[in-house]
Amino acid sequence: MTLEPLLQASPAIQVHTFAAVAALGLGAVVLFRRKGGRVHRLLGRTWVALMLVVALSSFFIHTIRTWGLWSPIHLLSIGTILSLAVGVAMIRRRNVEAHRRIMRATFFGALVVAGIFTFLPGRIMHEVAFGPAPAVASPSARVAGVGLMDIIAGTPLWVWPLFGYLVYIGWMRTRDRVVEPWRLFVMPVVILALVLHNALSATSVGLSALLVCGAVVGALCGRAIGRRRPARLLEDGRLHIRGDWVPLVLMLAVFAVHYAEGVALALAPALAAGPVFMQASAFLYGFLALTMLARTLTQLPAGFFFRTLRSQPAR
Fold it and tell me: Is there a single domain that holds both residue 66 and residue 5?
């Protein structure tokens, strides 16, 4: 890891990056600490200011030029500014629930998910985290010459329907709903199966250890998130679930990590032999999967499984 590529970048990139890192750390504190009070308001206002710096500074960065000087990153910045404005307006109207949902979605979408894509080969943060690209002529030239539209065009077509399905499922979970209990576990189990597949295919003890570490941290975070929105057991055995943006953000984060890993390995296969890259992927997979699973388990009413088993007819 070296800060040299970042320190040699333009002032706009430096301001954008340092503000984003500060917003990521402060946002995590605001997200998981007790809400309300003067400290929360002070931290929240500071976070909004940092996010505005992150969004506004991006308009002075033109390393990816999809439409002239502009790119999808600038569309994300516009969306971030609008989201922050709506979130502030909601809390001024005393709509705490809407404020919480919007700010949480902005944190995960504009910082966590978008930040993952900054570690793709050819980006400055990739060089900061993994060092400069190998000095081999053909792979380096290939990575440096690939733009965002080239990556999108080279993506298999089946990826986009999957992405659309995840967005649809995540969006439906932002609304209050009544569901059969088993439906809550479909997506967490699918993601967990993907993680277990990666764990079984891990070629070193270090990768498995990082995956386990990520799983432990994810389990703790999932429990903290799940406690905020417990499910209510209805008389017919179904569960009433309050709408939440967290499932959408977690599913998009898993998709982003898997997509970014696939793109990185396609552009620079040598990364598969790099311990830092593979260890970071293992940790993120473990973290996201167990966050999703632990959140689902924590949402269940106390004694849910015992009551479910007791209610089963005797055979």
Answer: yes
